[in-house]
């Protein structure tokens, strides 16, 4: 099964991240994930890539724009992004030269379109800007895709 990821960049503290990692491990087993799909943003996307790598599962990286790397302001975040990008089994780069809300929205839609199932590490609130997690969840719902909603702060999992 091909399973995409959408999720927040800010995941909370170490305990929450450890819980999310364990939930992603459970999803890998329960849904027999054969390929992951992610945009490799900091937060949920990179955590998903890390869990996939740890389980020797290939992933497809959907890159929103040619200059996506400049969005990683912190040197450590940029290095981690480059590491995950190099480890990707396949890469799709969208035809946007510069990062924008539209580019991020299109990347999120591409993740949904290529997925049989979507994992959403989401607080349940509307997106703060176009292309945010809430927008991608709404897009997936409009296509009647199955969504596993992993609420990082309430530590709940529901199927949408």
Name the features.
160 residues; alpha/beta; Rossmann fold; seven-stranded mixed beta sheet; 5 helices; 7 strands; 41% helix
What does this structure look like?
The chain has 160 residues and is of the alpha/beta class. It contains five helices and seven strands, in the order E-H-E-H-E-H-E-H-E-H-E-E. A seven-stranded mixed beta sheet has the order 4-3-2-1-5-6-7, with helices on both faces. Strand 2, helix 2 and strand 3 form a beta-alpha-beta unit. Helix 2 (44-54) packs across helix 3 and helix 4 crosses helix 5. The longest helix has 17 residues, at 14-30. It is globular, with a radius of gyration of 14 Å.
Number of DSSP strand runs: 7
Distance from first to last alpha carbon: 18 Å
CATH architecture classification name = 3-Layer(aba) Sandwich
Report the CATH topology name. Answer: Rossmann fold
Name the beta content range: 25-35%
Helix fraction bin: 40-55%
Strand order of the largest sheet: 4-3-2-1-5-6-7
Shape: globular
Low-confidence stretches: none
Based on secondary structure, the structural category is alpha/beta
For the report, how would you describe the main beta sheet?
Answer: 7 strands, mixed
Radius of gyration: 14 Å
CATH class: Alpha Beta
Tally of separate helices: 5
């Amino acid at each position: 099964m091909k399973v995409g990821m959408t999720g927040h960049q800010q995941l909370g503290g170490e305990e929450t991240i450890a819980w999310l990692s364990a939930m992603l491990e459970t999803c890998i087993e329960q849904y027999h994930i054969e390929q992951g799909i992610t945009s490799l943003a900091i937060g949920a996307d990179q955590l998903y890539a890390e869990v996939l790598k740890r389980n020797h599962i290939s992933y497809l990286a959907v890159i929103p724009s040619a200059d996506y790397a400049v969005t990683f302001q912190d040197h450590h975040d940029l290095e981690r992004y480059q590491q995950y990008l190099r480890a990707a089994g396949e890469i799709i780069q969208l035809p946007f030269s510069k990062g924008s809300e539209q580019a991020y929205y299109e990347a999120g839609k591409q993740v949904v379109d290529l997925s049989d199932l979507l994992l959403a590490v989401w607080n349940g609130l509307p997106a703060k800007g176009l292309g945010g997690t809430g927008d991608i969840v709404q897009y997936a719902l409009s296509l009647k895709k199955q969504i596993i909603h992993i609420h990082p702060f309430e530590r709940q999992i529901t199927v949408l």
